[in-house]
Amino acid sequence: MIIAASLLIAFLLFLALYLVAGRAASQHRAVSSRVQEYAGIDLDAGRIKEPSALQEIGMALRRWLQQRVRKNARKKQGTGLDMRMQQAGIPLQGSEFLLLLLVLFAIVLVVGWILTGSAWNGVVIGAGVCMAAWFYVLYCIKSRHDAFVHQLGDCLSLVANALRAGFSFLQTMELISREMQPPMNTEFGRVVRETSLGVPMEQALRRMDARVNSPDFSLIVTAVIIQQQVGGNLAEIIDTINETIRERVRLRREIGTLTAQGRATGAVLALLPPILGVVLYMISPEYMQPLLTTTYGHIAIGVGFVMEVIGFLVIRKIMDIKI
Question: Which residue windows are transmembrane per the record (predicted)?
Fold first, then answer.
């Protein structure tokens, strides 16, 4: 059994590394095909070979995952897995992230099965690891969003001053991509590259708005689009929006200070029961045995877990004040 599990882990690791490396190779082939199309040369002459069976299996699996991800993204505009990866700043497609999660789940399942002797324990541990990976993605999204909002005030001041100095809006975005720190310069640099490749500025800005997912930045995008259509002094508009955004940030900080105790209370109430259960199990295992080995004990754990989640969500909803 251990040999079979080791072979399965090795195969899954190889498959994951192969598909991730294949992404870079496919991007290189796409660039080469564009060069051949525009330059009229054949970069791959004499190097054409048929894909292997493993390559065909890997490409078929990736295409299937991409179809599932894109279908879900069409149903939920702006919340698809590809968009989540972009919002988190993770250089993976949604299908690749799903594949890595599946491989990670399989590896942890087998390792947990070997270490604990129970397949069910391996499933539970694998699901927990996958949930931790998804929570990490959500953490990256929030961290990146907070960093962007924190830089927004300085960015708007730079935009207004550059416009008054005679810069065009495109030149101003190029200046931001050079002078500011990530993620602000990364996002504006992407807009500049898209517009240089022929994408309309309105479409590029709306894509950036979807990636950033900030109501404050949506005000800026709307103002820029309207100004390009009807005219006006964009520098004064940006200054007005900047004052509004700074005031909203100040109010958010005040509300965060006032609700800190409530949020801490919710976290303590959510963490106290499992921590107390672990401590009691370490001090007196026989005292916790009825809860862990009997049907009524399992029911009590399930009911308590559901009530804990409901209570935590209620407290979080009360503390979530929108501005």
Answer: 97-116, 122-141, 262-283, 295-315
Residue tagged 């991007």 (tokens): 27
Gap between the Cα atoms of 93 and 19, Å rounded: 12
Distance from C-alpha of 285 to C-alpha of 38, rounded to nearest angstrom: 73
Ramachandran area for residue 89 (φ above 0: left; ψ -120 to 50: alpha; else beta): left
- pLDDT tens for 266-283 read 888 888 888 888 888 888
Peptide bond into 183 cis (omega under 30): yes
- Give the pLDDT confidence of 45-62 residue by residue, as tens digits: 444 445 555 555 555 555
Q: In one letter, which amino acid is 313?
A: L
pLDDT in tens, 61-72: 556 555 554 555
Helix (H) or strand (E) holding 156: helix 119-164
In terms of Cα–Cα distance, which of 153, 29, 20, 37 is closest to 91? 20
Give, as one character, the DSSP assignment of residue 52.
Answer: P
Cα distances from 126 to residues 98, 139, 143, 182, in angstroms, run 14, 20, 26, 33
d(CA 62, CA 98): 10
How far apart are the C-alpha atoms of 163 and 157, rounded to whole Å?
10
CA–CA distance, 313 with 173 (Å, rounded to integer): 40
Question: Which of 237, 250, 238, 240 lies closest to 149 in space, CA to CA?
Answer: 250
Cα 203 to its chain centre, rounded Å, is: 22
pLDDT tens, residue by residue, 213-227? 888 888 889 988 888
CATH value of 146-256 in 1.10.3470, 1.20.81, 2.60.40, 3.40.50: 1.20.81
Q: How far is the C-alpha of 44 from the C-alpha of 32, rounded, in Å? A: 8
Separation of CA 90 from chain center: 7
CA atoms within 13 A on the CB side of 256: 6
